[in-house]
Write a structure and sequence with these properties.
By secondary structure, the chain is of the alpha/beta class. The chain has 3 domains: about 120 residues, Winged helix-like DNA-binding domain superfamily/Winged helix DNA-binding domain (Arc Repressor Mutant, subunit A, Orthogonal Bundle), CATH 1.10.10; about 120 residues, Alpha-Beta Complex (Aspartate Aminotransferase, domain 1), CATH 3.90.1150.10; about 240 residues, Type I PLP-dependent aspartate aminotransferase-like (Major domain) (Aspartate Aminotransferase, domain 2). It is built from 16 helices and 17 strands. The strands form 4 sheets. Strands 5-12-11-10-9-6-7-8 form an 8-stranded mixed beta sheet, with helices on both faces. It is globular. The two termini are about 45 Å apart.
């Protein structure tokens, strides 16, 4: 770590020992990073008004930066009014005119009151890169909204309350099971659950045993652990575009170069992927083949074969994200991509949260043994394993077919809601709107009419009690603002129709028009404008 404190000279003592770590992996210029760091120190009271800063030459030498980078930082701070340069005397922190801090009480810490620790210069590169996804920021969690089309939400009325109560109580009903729970320390997961998962995957044509399964704390952790096991800073990782935002955030948090590859009505464009693999060394490919997130289209059979062939030819692992495979709206459940994996290229990740509730953080990973062992080891560094009571309860639901009965009920209820949403969109949305009827999953991907202002729509919809997920969340290149993802899981049929009517009114308001002809009688069209 470079320290301003390594600079010797007759400068204010407050300049000494103030850490700054230049991060060359960020998009933010180094001059802006240094300026922001010094501004933070001034605001925290770590640099007092009148403090003299070292010359740019000495700061550059101490931090390993170019002198013009430091000069640019000083110039920006001067523009902000935080520094003032005096010819022949040096550069000084501008006094803010704030009253001096009160004296600390007797016996208090010797740190002067009003001064805060300079955390910004101490954060790791991973911490600088980490961002809470927009869908989970506090501003996005407000509400409640009467017409909530955001993903990751369920209707509590559809949960199998009786089966859940019984499943969670049953592990405590025998002394032998209770002793096993109390003594469980296996980071691979609760053995009965691992066996149940392996049996369930056999229905999807996957050949695996309990030894091939590791239980993790939800699908997001499965993605993060796979990234930690395979991806180093600077590695290229391919994601679908549009695609699951949580995967993109996990890879970016590892310092990866996240590359989006186009999706169309047949799933991932393997021709575009092949072109990319010829020019870039890619470390990992993330796909959602059963029901592409967010468009809901399945990966076509010929592209499944092409993807596996490309993975073999270029020795690139494929992370199969099977987040919503239980919700299939046409035809039987398809085999997993890993079922066709003969070379062990595919890392399969699944979850039970989507068919139960998001707070049940239970997922699983199936992978080749060399990788799976590393995934489990990395998991053990963080928390040693998922809560065993939840694992035991889920194993009971699987063993008694309680989960299967619940999924069958969900398919009927969600199928009716999907149909209601597609019907409401066709009757109520303004001309120019397009959408994808999903073959699987729980979201309809909508393209807004040309000329719709996304920011005006956001406010107009919320003022009408409507919430949705903006399409930009699913793009890694800053695009997607002309799309919406509308989930149909948390609202009943009547609320869906009312909500779409309100959303359509908001779209018209965001276009600056009082009325527009509805799309009555028009067959839904593919939404992807990518």
């Amino acid at each position: 770590m470079a320290l301003l404190g390594s600079i010797a000279g007759a400068y204010s003592a407050s300049v000494l020992d103030l850490a700054f770590r230049p991060d060359r992996t960020r998009d933010v210029p180094l001059s802006r990073q240094l300026a922001d760091h010094v501004a933070t120190l001034v605001a925290a009271g770590r640099l007092d008004g009148g403090a003299r800063l070292p010359p740019t030459r000495e700061v550059a030498a101490a931090l390993g930066l170019a002198r013009n980078t430091v000069a640019a930082a000083y110039a920006e701070l001067t523009t902000r009014g935080l520094l003032q340069a005096h010819v022949g005397r040096g550069t000084f922190v501008v006094a803010t005119g704030a009253p001096p801090p009160a004296a600390p009480p007797s016996g208090a810490s010797p740190t002067p009151a009003g001064r805060e620790f300079g955390w910004s210069g101490l954060l790791s590169r991973a911490a600088h890169a980490a961002r809470v996804p927009a869908a989970f920021r506090r501003s996005e969690l407000d509400g409640p909204f009467p017409f909530d089309f955001r993903g990751g939400r369920v209707d509590p009325a559809l949960l199998p309350a009786g089966d859940l109560r019984w499943a969670f109580a049953r592990p405590f009903q025998t002394r032998a099971t209770l002793q096993a729970l109390a003594g469980h320390r296996d980071p691979w997961g609760w053995p009965p659950l691992r066996r149940a998962v392996a049996r369930r995957l056999a229905d999807r044509a996957m050949r695996c045993t309990a030894d091939d399964v590791a239980i993790v704390g939800g699908l997001q952790q499965a993605i993060d652990l796979t990234a930690r096991a395979l991806v180093d800073p600077g590695d290229a990782v391919v994601v679908e575009q549009p695609g699951y935002f949580g995967a993109a955030f996990a890879f970016a948090g590892r310092g990866a170069d996240v590359l989006g590859v186009e999706v169309d009505a047949r799933g991932l464009r393997t021709d575009r992927l092949a072109r990319l693999l010829r020019t870039r060394r890619v470390k990992l490919i993330h796909v959602t083949p059963a029901a592409q997130s967010p468009t809901g289209v399945p990966l076509a059979d010929d592209r499944r074969a092409e993807l596996l062939a490309l993975a073999d030819a270029h020795q690139v692992p494929v992370l199969e994200d099977d987040y919503d495979s239980e919700l299939r709206w046409s035809g039987p459940l398809r085999p997993t991509l890993k079922a066709d994996d003969r070379g062990g290229h595919v890392v399969y990740a699944g979850t039970f949260s989507k068919v139960l509730f998001p707070g049940l953080r239970l997922g699983f990973v199936v992978a080749a043994r060399p990788l799976l062992e590393r995934v489990v080891a990395l998991r053990a560094l963080a928390d040693f394993g998922t809560g065993v009571v939840e694992q035991a309860a889920l194993a009971t639901l699987l063993a008694t077919r309680g989960l299967d009965r619940h999924v069958a009920r969900l398919r009927r209820a969600y199928g009716a809601r999907r149909a209601a949403l597609l019907d409401a969109l066709a009757r109520r949305m303004p001309a120019g709107a397009r959408w994808t009827p999903p073959a699987g999953g729980h979201v309809v991907w909508v393209t807004l009419p040309p000329g719709t202002d996304p920011e005006r729509l956001h406010h107009a919809a919320r003022s009408r009690g409507v919430a949705y997920t903006g399409g930009e969340v699913f793009h890694v290149d800053g695009g997607g603002a002309d799309h919406l993802a509308l989930a149909f899981t948390a609202l009943d049929v009547a609320a869906i129709d009312d909500g779409v009517a309100r959303l359509a009114a908001a779209v018209r308001a965001a276009r600056g028009a009082r009325a527009s002809h509805p799309a009555r009688g028009r067959a839904p069209r593919r939404a992807a404008r990518r």
